[in-house]
User: Fold this.
Amino acid sequence: MTVTRQDFEDALAAYWGARQLQSEQSAIRDVVGVGTAGSVRGGKHFDAIATLLAKFFLDAGYPPASIRVTKSQGLELPGYYRPQKQWDVVVVHEGVLIAAFELKALGGPSYGNNYNNRVEEALGSAVDLRRAVLAEMYPKEKPWLGYFFIMQDGPGSRRPVSTADGALPVDGIWHDTSYQDRFGIFCQRLVTEQLYDAACYVTSSPEDPKPIELVESLDWRHFAAAINARLTYLKDLGIPG
Assistant:
């Protein structure tokens, strides 16, 4: 595959508005229509990441029509506890859900305001779809789910956060952890529990967009390898034909 580490770093810089996409990625963006996805993701920040992910599938021979990145293309996937849920990047080919991605971020300075929301969103999306799989709503190949998360790097996200004195004690793993630490634990558990097949978790900032990868198993190298493994598996099955 031709998606490189530099592509990843460029996309992250473009997320913060610090850099334009490379000409090759701009061409991919035009092919799959990422530039019109702003209304779906609450702004165009994630267009660069969506472009990056689309590149994997275009390079693997999937037609642009199979790669959905805009609301008009149909990003909704069936759930079990609700009729549908809109994902951020969806690849469907000949009735097979090749991959679906959630792209999320958490910024400061008030990290605590949306931390629980991000956790609940990720859990809800995955649990709903996985249960729909058990209900045989996804025929043929088992769906593959990816989670991409950016935590804004800053003093507020690095500082240890206390836990409340609740009715029962919390898991000791959470003691003296920052929001950055907590999201690393969360993403590791998402993958360990097989709610998502792979997760990429980075911290970054507008001042210094270069990614910081706090957990090796959640770095870009592992995430890209997992996507490529999915593509290789399906290729051996003759997908795409």
Summary: Residues 39 and 189 are 31 Å apart (CA to CA). The longest strand covers residues 96-106.
